[in-house]
Predict the 3D structure of the following.
Amino acid sequence: MAALDFDLPAQANLMPTLVAKGLASPEIFRSQELANSIWALATCGSGLASQAAQELVVFCVERRLRSLEAIQLAAVMWAVAAAGLDGPTLRSSSAPPPLMPRLADAAASRVLEFGPQEVANISWALAIESIDRPALRDQLAAAARRLSPVFGRKELVNTIWAFAVLGHKQP
C-alpha cells in the first residue's frame, strides 16, 4: 500500500476489512484475480497481508492450480517468493513448505508455454526459495536461451541473477 502512501495505522485499519472479504469467499476469484491478489498481498508487507497471501496460495494450489495460465502461475510463484523477502536479506517464504515444490512441479510441465516474463519470474522464485529441481532448471535455461532475443532488461537481469544463484552449468 506504499504506492498510495498510506501510513501504517491507516493500512492496519484497511487491511483486515479487505482481507476478511477476500478470504470469506476465495472461490469468487477468477484465476487472474487470484494471482493479482496474492501478488498484491505479498508486496504489501504487513503480517496480516502475508497471512492472507499464504491462505490464498493454499487455496490456489489446492483448487485452482490446473486452471492458472502460464503468466498467472509465474505471478503466484513470484508472489510466494516475494513474501519471503525482507529488504536485501533473503529469508525462507512464509508459505507452507509443500507449496513451492508443488508450484514448481506445475511449472515443469508447462515450460514450453512460458514467455520471457514467466521464465524470469519462475527462475527468480526458485532461486529465492532455494528450490533444487535440476530438470526444471535445465528446462528454464533452454527456454531462456530460446527466448533471449526477446528478453527485456528486467527479464534478462532477473534471469541472469537467478541462474547465478541456481548454479546452472552449460551442458
Remarks:
- Residues 77 and 171 are 27 Å apart (CA to CA).
- DSSP finds eight helices and two strands in the chain.
